[in-house]
Amino acid sequence: MTIGVLRMPRLGESMEEGKLVEWLVKLGEPFKRGQEILEVETDKTIVEFPALGDGTLIETLVEQGDMVSVGTPIARIEVGEGPDWTGDESRIEETENTTQSEMKVAEDVDGEAAGEDATAVPAQAGVSACTPPGASGSTQIRATPLARRMARHQGIDLGMVMGSGRRGRIERADVEAQAAATNTVQQVAGVTYLKKGPETGTPVVLLHGFGADHIAWGGVQTRLSAIGRQTFSFDLPGHGATVQEARTAADLHGPLDTALAELGLGPAHLVAHSMGAIAAVALAQTRGAKSLTLIAPAGLGHSIDAEFLRGFAHAASSGEISHLLGRITEGPHGLSSAMLTDIHASVARRRLTDLADALVGGSGQALNIRLDLANLADQIPVHLILGHRDQILDWRETLDISPRIAVHNLPRTGHSPHWEALAEVVSIMTDITR
User: Fold this and answer.
1) Can you give the residue ranges of every domain in the chain?
2) Which of 39, 169, 289, 412 could form a disulfide with 22 if both were Cys (CB 3.0 to 4.6 A apart)?
3) CATH for 184-432?
4) Tens digit of pLDDT for each residue in 150-182?
5) Are 300 and 398 in contact (CB under 8 A)?
6) pLDDT tens, 406-425?
7) Residue 185 pLDDT more than 70?
8) Would you state the CATH architecture of domain 1-101?
């Protein structure tokens, strides 16, 4: 048995360092040559690095989110009895040259870096880009880095996308078209929702944050439905295609309550992000819940980025939207120009202006759900998922929360842990909803 040391690869001629975004394999999990094992963010794009040989990840030497210089040891790999490909500099250089010749990076119109081409990597046909690696298969999928990132966020199965680029490469527009074709929404009581998962599955209700809609749960919803959960992601009042408006926080939960009743849903597992926590707590109080999971929730502290809320509600262009959304994640938000244009078209209707003012008081958050949450924790399991690099809310204001509430800390994520640490968040939710 041979143990090799994997070093940060050079993924571009000008690359001197990169951010280790995510390990795509788990500790102790074997992988095959060509399987994507690591996601690295460079100064130009996000690249998924394929293994140069078979192996098993036995130890990581740097943290996710760390900036790492090229050549720095990042992991220990068991390569079995085969050659130690982890230290083969010529093989790494060969991969770099192949990547550079097949992936000419160009700036996308919205400022996001998009690859003109991307190296073909193995993927299992018919399995989502969000599916944990390890399954066998030989189908080659070619996709630009931006298309892969968009697919990961929206829970799109790249194996089901027809590429329109050179040599069948999947591009941004292809992912957007697939999202439009597969994400057929429905409406009940004037509330828009997307349902995924088996009819007999445990029901999970997903509520987004300020300015978002049901699409924000794409990756989470796809993964949960794949493991047998019946998931419902809603457009909150005042958001997306939902008809009802919301001028105050109290307007958020009433239409949802009616919609859930018409769908025939009893107490479900409630999961909410940011402002959605306000509606989730009210729903848990009025109709009950099996559990309550709040991700970077509003209403638990005084601090808030008021400029973000009010700026978003009054944004004059998709460019301004993009700049503001840069605050909700630690890294790039990964939204395309088409998505940003759609968001701005909704914002331009000025549906959010009153709600933004209602959420922000004279000096900070205007709402407080602490006592309600503590009382609920005496009746049902309550969990918080917090990103320590949150620029919108201050996670430290939850340190004195009720000890009956389970807190999951993600030090390397910002205000949207369900985007930035999808695997970890889904793992937590899987355990909660068993």
Assistant:
1) 1-101, 103-182, 184-432
2) 39
3) 3.40.50.1820
4) 777 666 777 767 777 766 778 877 777 676 555
5) yes
6) 999 999 999 999 999 998 99
7) yes
8) Beta Barrel (2.40)
